[in-house]
Amino acid sequence: MDFTPLPEHESLRLKVRDFIERQVLPLEADRSNYDAHENIALDKLEPLKAEAKKHGLWAPQSPVSRGGLDLPLVAWAPFYEEANRSIFGPVCMNCAAPDDGNMRVLSRVGTAKQQDQWLQPIINGDIRSAFAMTEPHPGGGSDPTMIQTMATRHNDTWKIHGHKWFITGAAEASHFILIARTSNDKRKGLSAFLFHKDQPGWHIKRRIPIMGPEEHGGHCELIFDGLEIHEENRLMEIGDGLKLCQIRLGPARLTHCMRWLGLAKRCLEIATKYVEEREGFGVKLADRESIQLKLGELAHDIHIGRLLVMHAAWKLDAGDYARKEISSAKIHVANTINKAADTGVQLCGAKGYSKDTVLEWVYRYARQARLVDGADEVHKMVLAQTYRKEGNDFWRWGI
Ligand SMILES: Cc1cc2nc3c(=O)[nH]c(=O)nc-3n(C[C@H](O)[C@H](O)[C@H](O)COP(=O)(O)OP(=O)(O)OC[C@H]3O[C@@H](n4cnc5c(N)ncnc54)[C@H](O)[C@@H]3O)c2cc1C
């Protein structure tokens, strides 16, 4: 593959960079612009969304005909990375999780009618969405074949009973994608549905308190006690729930990586600025080899992450599922953002531990990266299984 960006993608990247630098970072620097859950306050977000739209920096994952930029994945990478130089960036440009993954999957698998009703308002930025899959024990978590939430058919209606948790954004989402069991078939036992927050038959049991800052709408526990979903709001075919998850989660894992690389670079940027200024024992910190080793190692890890992400993006653009490439990128980048935040805090000393920079925010946020959308161990299991099947072909180039 050729890593040279197309001129139009490079100029878009520079526009994102400029937007973040001039409009978002100044706002991020003032804690009075944060909401109670340490995200950008909604009244501050709306004008920035309007600005991003005005500058053509809106919904990079969505079709042009619906108001997006319809970029190939290799062009998402620099866009998302620049966007997440600020902790507030992606949500200002409508490319934050979980809306980002939900828009991508709905624009791929939804019927035209479903897209008009369920996708268009998310692309417009009028509403938010959620993806409800994970369940508490004994339901499905790492292993989706354990999903227990049941969808039972009565003529043209599906009745839902079950329990989900850690559903990001649920407290403020209007449109939900739900994964539920429609049979006991091992591969074809799950199906996907759409529902609106105002439908009766479900409720939020609680917003789960977490260690890090929260997406708008938090991470919620949901109870389904008779939600009725009309057949026209079922996605794909009956039994295609796992397939939909694959279509959604592959690119969604990769866009997480793209954003996390932006945050990792920001940590390195803050730490470097500090050690370039700070002196101790008669020497500038940046001139110490022990400090340079830390900076160099981080730059090296970020570079590896970018290569893994680009390789997977290139394969996805070519129509491949890129399963092992995405798993490799997810493991590496999830660990790199943790290392970047930890190194950043360490190099900035007491200041790193304070709220004077976003390092402590990223430090607390980063820990989820090794759990969400497949824990490290699960992705390593996928790699081991693939290697056992492919042998030395595991490392073949090409599609
Ligand atoms: C902040 C946050 C946001 C989330 N948002 C959403 C959301 O929007 N929608 C949604 O549906 N879910 C969401 N989740 C859930 C997330 O996807 C799951 O937490 C994840 O898939 C792991 O499932 P689990 O928590 O049930 O862990 P479990 O399956 O109980 O696993 C626990 C641990 O066991 C280990 N483990 C598991 N399997 C293996 C294995 N095969 N080999 C070795 N070790 C293993 C891993 O260390 C793992 O962390 C979110 C979670 C968090 C923390």
What is shown here, in short?
The chain has 399 residues and is of the alpha+beta class. 48% of the residues lie in helices and 15% in strands.
Distance between the termini: 11 Å
Please indicate the percent range of residues in DSSP E strands (runs of 2 or more). 5-15%
Give the overall silhouette: globular
What percentage of residues falls in helices of 4 or more residues? 40-55%
Question: In angstroms, what is the radius of gyration?
Answer: 21 Å
Strands of the widest sheet, in order across it, are 1-4-5-8
Bound molecules: flavin-adenine dinucleotide
The domain count comes to 3
Compute the number of helices.
12
CATH superfamily name of the largest domain? Butyryl-CoA Dehydrogenase, subunit A, domain 3
Strands, total number: 10
> Ranges with pLDDT <50 over ≥5 residues?
none
Give your account of this protein's structure.
The chain is of the alpha+beta class. The protein folds into 3 domains: 7-124, Acyl-CoA dehydrogenase/oxidase, N-terminal domain (Butyryl-Coa Dehydrogenase, subunit A, domain 1); 129-241, Butyryl-CoA Dehydrogenase, subunit A, domain 2, CATH 2.40.110; 249-395, Butyryl-CoA Dehydrogenase, subunit A, domain 3 (Up-down Bundle). 48% of the residues lie in helices and 15% in strands. The chain contains 12 helices and 10 strands. The protein has helices spanning 7-28, 42-54, 73-83, 89-92, 99-109, 112-124, 241-277, 289-317, 323-347, 349-353, 359-366, 376-390; strands at residues 129-132, 150-154, 157-168, 175-181, 190-196, 202-207, 219-230, 234-235, 279-280, 283-284. Strands 1-4-5-8 form a 4-stranded mixed β-sheet. Strands 2-3-7-6 form a 4-stranded antiparallel β-sheet, with no helix packed on it. Strands 9-10 form a two-stranded antiparallel ribbon. The chain is globular and about 80 Å long. The mean pLDDT is 97. Flavin-adenine dinucleotide (FAD) is lined by residues 98, 131-134, 141-142, 166-168, 210, 219, 368, 371-373, 375, 377-378, 381.
